[in-house]
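Much of our argument rests on the idea that a fold can be written as discrete symbols. This step matters because it turns folding into a mapping between discrete strings. The record that follows shows the chain in one-letter code together with its fold in token form.
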Amino acid sequence: MGITHVTVTIRNPAMPEKFFEGLFLVDTGAVDSLVPKKHLDKIGLKPKSQRIYELADGSDVKMDITTADIEFMGDIVGGTIIFGADDAEPILGVTALESVGIEIDPRNQRLKRMPSTRLKAIKTS
């Protein structure tokens, strides 16, 4: 699959007037979304916890996380945001996509809205 980007707004739920908007890489291999720390600091978001993530090379790294409102494609969802390096590319993870009923069409390499959001896993026989 090719590279897909989408415009995303990360909003501080406690101060909705504070937000960061940018072009995010859609990464279906990433569970959570990642934003450079400098942007999260600027909108007043602070780490709430830490979580261990597995990187693409197989190594593990403990990273600061918080929660925020994630807005894209006309929808909004609350989600986990990872504090990335200041030079990191912002990433939109699969949890945010699935939470609002968006999937990637691999043939056209575009995001598309599902007719409904899945409430449970699909059974396979």
Remarks:
- The chain has one domain: 5-113.
- The chain is about 10% helix and 50% strand.
